[in-house]
Design a protein that fits this description.
The chain is about 30% helix and about 20% strand. By secondary structure, it is α+β, with helices and mostly antiparallel strands. The protein has one domain. Strand 2 and strand 3 form a beta hairpin. The termini are far apart.
Amino acid sequence: MGLLDILLGRTKPVVADLDRLFALPSAAVTLEAAAGFTPTGQGAVCFATVEGAAFEQSHREVQALLDADTDRDGPPVELRQDDYGYSWLVSRRAPDQLSALVNDLHAVNSQMEVNGFGPQLLCSLAGFEDPSGRRLALVYLYKRGTFYPFAPLPDGTQRRDNALELQVRAALSGDLRIEQDLSRWFPVWGAPGL
């Protein structure tokens, strides 16, 4: 970034650092100790819907890449669309296989990036649950390189448990790069994998 960019207030976009996803297993240990949440074994990568042969080829490549791992039930990655028109590649693992789930999420993001779909990538998430059934997602914002917690209330309404989200933010601030701008803590209502 040059002097002219500084004077005109232009900033460089943050480069996504997919390797930050590998911090999730250690953050999960902290999350369990601090709030009682354990992994569900579900995670997903969200992106703006893409159509066409190039995306179909990319999806087949992701499937083939993850098919090599025989330690799972069902398809390696399932393609789903949410009510808002976004696409999700969903991975399911056993709850004690968070590291393998993170590898899946990293592989999906990397393959999409390599095939030219990086600009469509929005976020990735890993699901967690506490003994009472409350759900929580740790969401990685692809374009910001940061994480934030998303905790929908269990009553089925589209309301969040803000107190829990702030508690998780405080607990994980040493484990993950947490998004400081709360206005970027987007709700991911109905996200597959949550």
